[in-house]
Amino acid sequence: METLKASAVQMKSGPDRSSNLECAGQLLRQAAREGAQLAVLPEIFSWRGPQADELANAETITGPSSQAVAALAAELKIYIVAGSLLESADTEATGSNTGINKQPANDAPPEACYNTSLLFGPGGELLAFYRKIHLFDVDMPGSLSFRETDTRLPGDRAVVATTGPAVLGLSVCYDLRFPELYRELTARGAEILTVPSAFTYPTGQAHWKLLLRARAVENQAWVIAPNQYGEAGYGFADYGHSMIIDPWGRVLAEAGDDEDMVLTCELDAAVLDKVRRELPSADHRRM
Fold first, then answer.
1. Left if phi > 0, otherwise alpha if psi is -120 to 50, otherwise beta: which for 196?
2. Which residues on adjacent β-strands are paired with residue 267?
3. Which of 265, 269, 242, 267 lies closest to 255 in space, CA to CA?
4. Which of 107, 128, 245, 129 is nearest to 176 (CA)?
5. CA 236 distance to own-chain centroid
6. Domains observed in the chain
7. Are 258 and 228 in contact (CB under 8 A)?
8. In 3D, which of 58, 160, 192 has the Cα closest to residue 115?
9. Which segments of 103-225 are extended strands (E)?
10. Between the CA of residue 194 and those of 22, 68, 70, 161, 245, what are the distances in Å?
């Protein structure tokens, strides 16, 4: 890994795609002005609205949101993780990942979509895409009830991508609760874990920072976790508090819960090397 500057971009996306893309562009340009070589947008950054409208607003991987971010990556000459978008499941994708599971899973209807994270290079090229594996089905009476499986399909593979400065392990939001995914990503060489999210307020207050720091510590990796904030189209609020965390579990930057924000930090290669060299826990695994 090389030392680099990276940004986590916090947004409050809504059901107006053009407005969301305009906001994302402004924040990505700010990240570039702050020297970021890598910027990460939050989950469902380009469209966030009522669940009943998801399928009508799903896109192909090469659709308008992807094209807009690819153009920004080329303009700004930076790597961009386009948090995630709702990907139509009836079209093939192109890029470093191949194939698509067209069979519904977890009782999702055949017309479901994927929740897909995209990585673009500084030339605007699509380097990798990851379909969120773990789907958020919860029922917390009086607080939160939501079933992603009503409209979404799970991905079926972990994705690690080698960029110029670092190796990235891609994930999305609810994946954060499944440490085995991150173990797989770091076993395959990931140095930076990206966790674009729309983490809810009730669960975020209880577990967001705890889980992010745990994934950083147990995998001895950088964690970049941009989150949505504010009322969503689903009837509940997202938590905000986007973070960048170092491989020792230290929170280097944290946003609030009520505004767009760009967090930019230097990810020092020497820190990663020192932590992994002095406490080589990955070498001590017995299971």
1. beta
2. 4
3. 242
4. 245
5. 20
6. 4-284 (3.60.110.10)
7. no
8. 58
9. 113-120, 126-131, 137-140, 144-147, 159-162, 167-170, 192-194, 222-225
10. 22, 20, 18, 11, 11
Any residues with CB less than 8 A from the CB of 258 and at least 6 apart, and which? Answer: 229, 230, 240
In whole angstroms, what separates CA 15 from the centre of its chain? 19
Length in residues, the chain: 287
Tokens of 116: 């897909």
Active site residues per annotation: 43, 132, 173
- Tell me the C-alpha distance between 91 and 85, whole Å: 14
Q: Do residues 36 and 27 lie in contact, with contact meaning Cβ atoms separated by under 8 Å? A: no
What pLDDT tens digit does each residue of the chain (287 aa) get?
999 999 999 999 999 999 999 999 999 999 999 999 999 999 999 999 998 899 999 999 999 999 999 999 999 999 999 999 999 986 554 444 433 333 444 454 557 899 999 999 999 999 999 999 999 877 777 666 778 888 899 999 999 999 999 999 999 999 999 999 999 999 999 999 999 999 999 899 999 999 999 999 999 999 999 999 998 777 789 999 999 999 999 999 999 999 999 999 999 999 999 999 999 999 999 98
For the beta carbon of residue 71, count every other beta carbon within 10 angstroms.
13
